[in-house]
Design brief:
single chain; 175 residues; mainly alpha
Length: 175
């Protein structure tokens, strides 16, 4: 499993290096291409017999990699930099309050349990890195549901963002 993951990563980075970067300033970089290739490859592989790697512990290895990712992100964070531009902090708080208002309204209309609201929120805000952790707090057996929600958000978000950037490019050319 580790060999397949490392091979896919190296292959995606090599292929991404051959693809053009777009935008001024650059929007689609080599790293963006690599992520797109890995996500698309992972989706395609999920329809092959490789999906049966779950039976030999793919989730345990995936969770280990997920926690390693969280640790590396946290190690790079510079919380003192937040105080340098307090307007961004205020904008972030306002954005999260809007997020909460929409989530609570949707949860009330759908009569969704708090588990789905909290996990869905983390899937939107924190993605696949934090959604399984929140789901696992409610019930450890639900951590895969959180991971699925986060990954589904990533998949939809990646392709929706590409579509939005294409539409914005059309508008910019038309102006």
């Amino acid at each position: 499993m580790i060999g397949i993951a490392l091979t896919a990563t190296v292959g995606a980075k090599a292929l991404a290096g051959t693809l053009p970067e777009f935008g001024d300033p650059t929007i689609i970089t080599t790293s963006t291409w690599a992520i797109l290739i890995v996500v698309t490859g992972g989706l395609l592989l999920s329809f092959t017999p490789l999906q049966e790697m779950e039976e030999v512990g793919a989730s345990r290895l995936g969770y280990f990699a997920l926690y390693l990712l969280l640790t590396s992100i946290g190690a790079k964070a510079d919380l003192a930099a937040v105080l340098d531009v307090p307007l961004y902090l205020l904008a972030g708080v306002l954005w999260i309050l809007i997020h909460i208002a929409f989530l609570m309204a949707a949860a009330r209309m759908a009569r969704a349990p708090l588990f789905f609201v909290a996990t869905g929120s983390m899937a939107n805000v924190g993605g696949a890195a934090s959604a399984p952790i929140v789901a696992g707090v409610y019930l450890p057996a639900m951590a895969p549901v959180g991971l699925l929600m986060g990954v589904a958000g990533y998949i939809l978000g990646i392709y929706a963002a590409l579509g939005c950037s294409w539409l914005i490019g059309l508008v910019a050319v038309g102006l």
